[in-house]
Structures are given as C-alpha cells and as structure tokens.
Amino acid sequence: MNYNNKTVWITGASSGIGRELAIQFAELGASVILSARNVEKLTALKDELKGGGHLILPLDLAKPEEVLSKVTAAINELPAIDILINNGGISQRSLFLENDFKVYRQLMEVNYFGLVALTKAVLPSMVARKSGSVVAISSVAGKVGSKLRTGYSGTKFAVVGFMDCLRAEVKEHNIHCLTICPGFIKTAIAHNSLNPQGVAQNKSEQAIENGMDVKVAASKMINAINSKKDEVIVGQGLSGWAPTIKRFFPRLFNRLTAKVNFK
To answer: Which residue spans traverse the membrane (predicted)?
Structure first.
C-alpha cells in the first residue's frame, strides 16, 4: 500500500517495534510523528528515515494527564493523523508476592492510561474527518496469563478490553480499530522490564532472543493495518499459539503455565 500523503503517529518510537514501524512506514511514503521520552534517540531516528515531513513530539506516557493536555493543545497544529499507533509501554518480570505496589501503578499509567490519554486527544479529529485508524499494541499477555506478569498482563488485558469497546463505539464514524498482540519479539523489552522494586532488570531472556525478528513482526503489523483487521496475534512458536491453546485446552494451558517460568 502507498502511504504518500499519510501521517502515522507512533509512540515508543525510540526502540524496538516502534522504531521498526517508523522505518517501514517511512519507506512506504508516510510522514511519521515520533514520540517517546528520549529526544536524542528520536532525533537520530528522524535523521535516518526515508523521505521528509517527519516530526518529533516527546511524550512521557507515565504522565497521562500531561499527555492529554499537551496533545489536545497541539493537535490543531499537527498534520491530520491517519494512523495512531499506541506502541509505547513497559513490561515486568516479578512475582506478585514480591512486588512493591507501586509497580502496578507504574505499569498501568504507561501501558493503559497513557494509551487512553493519547487516543482521547487524537480521536476527535479522526471522527470529524470520518477517517482514521487507531492501533494498540497489546500483547499475547493480554490474552493469556503466566508467571511473573501479573502487572503487565493486567494492563494488556485492559488494553484489549478498551479497544473492543472503542471499536464498537466508533464503527459508525468509519474509524478502524486494531489490537495487535505480539508474542516473543527480538527487542529490548526484557532489559527494560521492571523488577519487584519497579526498576529495569537490565538483562536479556532466551525466549526474547529466540523470538521473531522485529523487522518481520513490524511487516506483519503493517499488513494487518492495511487489511483493516480487528485483532491479530504476531508471534511464533508457543507465544503465537498460546491464545489458541488457552481457548481450546484451558486446563492444560493453566497446568503448563504453573510449571514454566517464561524467562
């Protein structure tokens, strides 16, 4: 699909899936709005992108009220947003009994409320034009649960539910809503995952290192956007099949997840 004269806004654009989506959309002709906290990385990425018209708008999703006010104030000065990709987020690798309560607050602010705030600011302009796509990067952990993910999985389940409701509400306005649930993808998500004290664990995990290449994953996500799908699983191996196994063999899946640490 040709994305000339289209504007795609991507959060979490400084690394991983967000960065690769920005590269591939730019190659398809889109102008990209890049959001994350790290301005230096966003600037380097902007300089790398093919084409022109790309913008940087730093956002801290951990401060959703600030996101809502900042974007609402700026939205009329920005190009019309054709696709909003809510990709920014953080994960977790820690047991419920060991976690500080603040970890759950951190995860929910970034993964859920940050997403809701940005969507709240951008969606009215799409509705006014009767055109646009809202994309949420949830997770396979938003469809099935496992050890060490109580906070992360809870936020991603919330994203899936939010998008299901939003999709029903805006269908009459010709707005497309897509929920993407990645499995294990080769990114830095494991390094940035929070420990019981809410600090990045700064270590890799074999499951992530053996996961789907991020370029392949991003290409599949763009294809799902092109096809106007409602929800898609992007993963390989167990991470790709987990929702199906859970659906048809729930007791077996629950026994397996009680035995295995996905690290």
So the answer is: none
- CATH code, domain carrying 178: 3.40.50.720
- Of 260 and 155, more confident: 155
What is the rounded distance in angstroms from the CA atom of residue 141 to the CA atom of residue 119? 21
Q: What is the pLDDT of residue 78?
A: 97
- Domain residue limits at 242: 7-259
Residues 202, 137, 213, CA angle at the centre, nearest 5°? 60
Q: Would residue 235 count as lying in a domain?
A: yes
Backbone dihedral angles phi then psi of residue 128, each to the nearest 5 degrees? -60, -35
CA distance 143 to 70: 32
The angle formed by the CA atoms of residues 62, 165 and 252, to the nearest 5 degrees, is: 85
Cα–Cα distance for residue pair 33/25, rounded to 1 Å: 11
Whether residue 1 is contained in a domain is answered as: no
Question: What ranges in the chain are assigned the alpha helix state H?
Answer: 16-27, 39-48, 64-74, 101-108, 114-129, 150-170, 189-192, 206-209, 214-226, 238-248, 250-259
The per-residue pLDDT for 262 is 57
With cut-offs at 50, 70 and 90, classify the pLDDT of residue 243: very high
| Overall domain count for the chain | 1
Residues identified as active-site: 152
Residue 242 reports pLDDT greater than 80:
yes
